[in-house]
Amino acid sequence: MTRVPLLERRRTLARAPGFTLVELMVALSGGLFLSIVVFALARDASRFYQREGRIASATLAGMIGFERLKADIARAGYLGTPNIQLDPARAVNVSASTPEAIFTLAAVRVTTDIPDLSANDAFKLNLAAGQPLTPDQIVLSGSYSATDEFPAVVDPSGQTIYLQMNTPSMARLGYLSAASPAAQLALLKNVFGVSPGLILRFKDQAGKLYFGEISSVNAGAPPAIALVAPFPQRTSATGVNGLRGFEDGSSANVVNIVRYRVMDLQNDAQGPTWKALFDASKGAPGEDTRTELVRDQLDADGKLVANSTEIVAEYAVDLQFSVFGQPAMGIPAVVFSAPGDANFGTFFKANGVGDFPERVRSVRARLSVRSREADRTTAIPGGFYRFQIAASQWARVRTFQADVALPNQASVQW
Fold first, then answer.
1. Exposed, middle or buried, 93 (CB in 10 Å: 0-12/13-18/19+)?
2. 90 and 181 inside one domain
3. Is residue 350 part of a domain?
4. Which comes out higher in pLDDT, residue 93 or 296?
5. Are residues 226 and 285 part of one domain?
6. What Å distances lie between residue 354 and 85, 102, 349, 351, 375, CA to CA?
7. CA distance 109 to 350
8. CA distances from 71 to 64, 67, 76, 359 (A)
9. 249 Rama sector, left if φ>0, alpha if ψ -120 to 50, beta otherwise
10. Last residue of a domain, one of 225, 254, 283
């Protein structure tokens, strides 16, 4: 074999393809810039995904909470009374000495601008931006913890109601098959209240209605419900109203008072009950001023039932109600009425006296929730699309609205 001279080999290598140092630097710089662009796009895409995920979560939570609100409104008045002050089936007159919530008991009551959130910094920002928000409160009553009337009799004193055991309603409750007296008592308390103070509705043989405050619930054979004050007996003074003996063939059921409102829980008077829930995240923008849609229950004295407060929808920022009703009986048209209208004061008065909530035929409810994080630096004019949570920070808003019929008041014509 012929050896290739060293000089010729070097010349061959010099003519081989390759990159100069300048070309390599240009390529590396271009790749670096491309990586930066890809990283920036990935970061923005991740932020966009997180924001969309948060608003999707807020939308879903708002929808679930709104559906619960609608269901409770539709059930208002079930095994209750449309308006105790005017109900012709009421057996005993109510007065200022009647427990507060019984005195104003009605299937539905709307009060405006409650609770007052004007001290909340986020609501102050929105007010300064020309977007005043004053959420309403709705109070509903009816049998929400059970669907049954329980056949019952009353003792001669009128202060203890005995539930008859061998009845379909007690069987559906599971009382007959409960393993122990403690289990029976737990079933009864699930309906008539873990603690005293709920309202008992008693319907006598003639269909007359009595409402009293429950003082205790006792299991046994038969189970007994004791009242704070006895139901009146029929006498010459009471005329046709009042209990007649044991009233065999009567029925009893619980009446729950349910309240919905937008609350700043972490700064509410309940204080320590909710404070720990928000401490871990309150440093994030808008977290220290967040508000929630809350559902709780009231007792016969109009006081909060212990441990009844529930968060129905997080980041709720507005709750508004208007109604369709008949301002006068006869054959008038059903009119739409919103807070501030003259007719609205006919349906609902602030003190619950002299109004006509029984004439309401449906409720229009509107709930607005915001996303947790702001994604705009300015508002969108022309509607409630953004909620300001901090300076130059606006979060997106989702609003749900529905007209909810009140079937339990459809036939009320008094």
1. exposed
2. no
3. yes
4. 296
5. no
6. 8, 15, 7, 9, 48
7. 9
8. 11, 6, 9, 20
9. left
10. 254
Token digits for 246? 């044991």
Pairing of strands 360-376, 386-390: unpaired
- Do 268 and 403 belong together in one domain? yes
- Residue 286 inside a domain? The answer is yes
Give the DSSP H or E segment for 62: helix 21-75
Angle ∠(106,109,110) on CA atoms, nearest 5: 180
- How far is 72 from 297, CA to CA, in rounded Å? 12
Q: Are residues 277 and 399 in the same domain?
A: yes
Q: How many CB atoms lie within 10 A of CB 301?
A: 12
CA distance 250 to 39: 75
Residue whose pair of structure tokens reads 């920022």 in the numeric block: 317
Residue 285: asked if its preceding bond is cis (omega within 30°), the reply is: no
What CATH number corresponds to the domain at position 193?
Answer: 2.40.30
Strands 209-218 and 292-298: unpaired
Domain that holds residue 223: 150-254
Per DSSP, the three-state class of 335 is strand
Structure tokens at 173: 């409750």
Q: Measured on CA atoms in the order 189, 190, 195, 201, is the torsion positive or negative? A: negative
Residue appearing with tokens 């200022």: 96
pTM: 0.86
The answer for 327, left when phi > 0, alpha when psi is -120 to 50, beta otherwise, is alpha
**CB-side neighbour CA atoms (13 Å) of 252:** 28
Interval 32-68: pLDDT, tens: 777 777 766 666 666 655 666 666 777 888 899 999 9
CA 126/CA 379 separation, integer angstroms: 10
Q: Look at residue 5 and tell me whether its pLDDT is greater than 80.
A: no
Q: Is the backbone peptide bond immediately before 115 cis, with ω within 30 degrees of 0?
A: yes
In a shared domain, residues 327 and 380: yes
- Domain edge (last residue) among 254, 288, 319: 254
Instruction: Specify the number of domains making up the chain.
Output: 2
Residue 93 within a domain? yes
Bigger pLDDT: 244 or 79? 79
Residue 337 within any structural domain of the chain: yes
